Amino acid sequence: MVRTSFIIVVLALVLILAVAAAVALQLLYHGVREGEKPQVQLDVEAVVRSMVGDVPMGVEVSSSEFTLGGVIPRVYTCDGEDVSPPLRWSSVKDAKYYAVLMVDPDAPKGLFIHWVIYNIPSNTTALEAGVPKKEEVPGLGQQSLNNFGKVGYGGPCPPRGSKHRYVFIVLALRDRANIEPGSPPRETIDSIKKLAISYGYTYAYYGR
C-alpha cells in the first residue's frame, strides 16, 4: 500500500513537471510571430533566429550612432525626425545583394516590422542616415511596407512608459529578390530569407 502510494506521488510529480515544462516552452516561443502578444522577453539571438531560420552567422553589423545594446538617438525615432540611422556591415564574399531588416520584438501585439530594404548591391556595405521613404531608391535597392502600413523606415515609437529593443538584421543574398510591390512586410521577409547565405545583427534600445 505504501509502495503504491509512493508510485502515485512520483507519477503525479512527473506529470506536474511535464506540464510546467510544456507551459514554459510555450511562453518562450509564443510572441515571436508577427501579430502575437509576447509573454516573455526573448533574447535577441532567439528573435533573430525566428526571422532568418538556419542561415549561418557571418556578417558584422554596427552603427556610428549607437553601440550594441546602447540607446538609439531621438532623431531616429517618432519623437524626432523619424529618419533611418546610418548602418554599416562587413562584406560577404559570395553575396550578390544585401537586405536590411529592423524589428521590435517587444511590441505589445508581437513582433513589429519597422523597416525592410533589399536588393542592396553587393558593393554597398553601408547605409547613410535618412534613406528616402519610397519603394525604389536609385542605386540602393527597394523598400517594402512596414507594419505602420507605410513604405520604408518607421522609427522606434514604443508606448509611453516602456523601453523596447530594436534589432537591425543584415542578410547577405545569393540572388536578387523579386517581390511584388505592396506585399505585406512578413511575406517580403519570408521571400528574402530564402535567398540568404549569411546574416548578422546589432540592436539598441529606445524608451519613452
Which structural traits does this protein have?
208 residues; alpha+beta; Phosphatidylethanolamine-binding Protein; 7-stranded mixed β-sheet; 10 strands
Describe this structure in words.
There is one protein chain. The protein has 208 residues and is of the alpha+beta class. The protein has a single domain, classed as Alpha-Beta Complex (Phosphatidylethanolamine-binding Protein), CATH 3.90.280.10. 22% of the residues lie in helices and 26% in strands. The chain has three helices and ten strands. The chain has helices spanning 2-29, 44-52, 185-193, and strands spanning 61-62, 70-71, 87-89, 97-104, 112-121, 126-127, 136-137, 141-143, 163-173, 196-207. It has a seven-stranded mixed β-sheet with strand order 2-10-9-4-5-8-7, covered by helices on one side. A hairpin with a 3-residue loop joins strand 7 and strand 8 (141-143). Residues 19-40 have low confidence and may be disordered.
| CATH homologous superfamily grouping | PEBP-like
Mean pLDDT: 86
Rounded to the nearest angstrom, the radius of gyration is 20 Å
Strand order of the largest sheet: 2-10-9-4-5-8-7
**In CATH terms, what is the fold-level topology?**
Phosphatidylethanolamine-binding Protein
Helical residue percent band: 10-25%
Number-wise, the strands total: 10
| Shape estimate | globular
What is the CATH domain class?
Alpha Beta
Uncertain runs are 19-40
CATH architecture: Alpha-Beta Complex
| Tally of distinct domains | 1
Structural class: alpha+beta
Helices and strands, in N-to-C order? HHEEEEEEEEEHE
